[in-house]
Design goal:
22% strand; seven-stranded mixed β-sheet; 7 strands
């Protein structure tokens, strides 16, 4: 592990543990099962699979949709550049305690709906993103809303930017194909439930 990643991980010592995130997600599911797609937090394997890649390491601006209790957020921060910025947008307010506990000046958390993504990006001049990582369940979102969210994702990504959606079902492929083209798929079996990461690069 290089010194930059070690230093990044040292910032995360106050963040919730896996067991704490599990309890928070269970509470969130009890409160609103239609908004919380799973009873289990993302596995450490999934978090590393999403974050340990060149597009994250080289990015200056990263957006995360649906961070939940923050497991993926912590992994992204651990692999990001020291001067990079991460905007995490979460709809379920019960996760505020977990996300607020992640003490890292590169992180900005907004509690809002993903459909308000453009407003969140324009706020404080965040700028176009190099990477957008999404865990929101596109299969449970009404199609018109899902299409609007994907269109906004396309708009906020710079040319050459990467869109990563980790999903239980493949609905997001149909929403993204008209703008991004075919997806590259990455199976992630070591998670409960097993997921697939769909990856696109914005060409223009």
């Amino acid at each position: 592990m290089n010194h930059a990643i070690s230093a990044n991980r040292a910032r995360l010592v106050r963040a919730p543990t896996f067991l704490q995130r599990t309890w928070l997600i269970f509470k969130a599911w009890l409160g609103n099962p239609t908004q919380v797609a799973t009873l289990c937090p993302s596995s450490p394997y999934l978090n590393e699979h999403l974050a340990d890649r060149d597009s994250i390491r080289h990015a200056g601006r990263i957006i995360e949709l649906g961070p939940g209790a923050g497991g993926t957020t912590q992994a992204l921060l651990a692999h990001m550049r020291p001067d990079a910025k991460l905007l995490s947008i979460e709809k379920t307010a019960v996760f505020s305690e977990a996300l607020d506990a992640i003490q890292d000046p590169r992180l900005r958390v907004e509690f809002a709906d993903a459909i308000d993504l453009l407003d969140m990006v324009l706020k404080d001049d965040f700028g176009q993103a190099d990477v957008l990582v999404s865990g929101i369940p596109f299969s449970s979102i009404p199609a018109p809303v899902a299409i609007t969210i994907v269109q906004t994702i396309y708009e906020v990504l710079r040319p050459g930017g990467v869109f990563i959606a980790y999903q239980f079902r493949s609905d997001v492929k149909n929403y993204a194909r008209p703008l991004f083209g075919p997806a590259t798929t990455e199976l992630i079996p070591m998670n409960l439930p097993p997921l697939t990461a769909f990856v696109w690069t914005k060409t223009v």
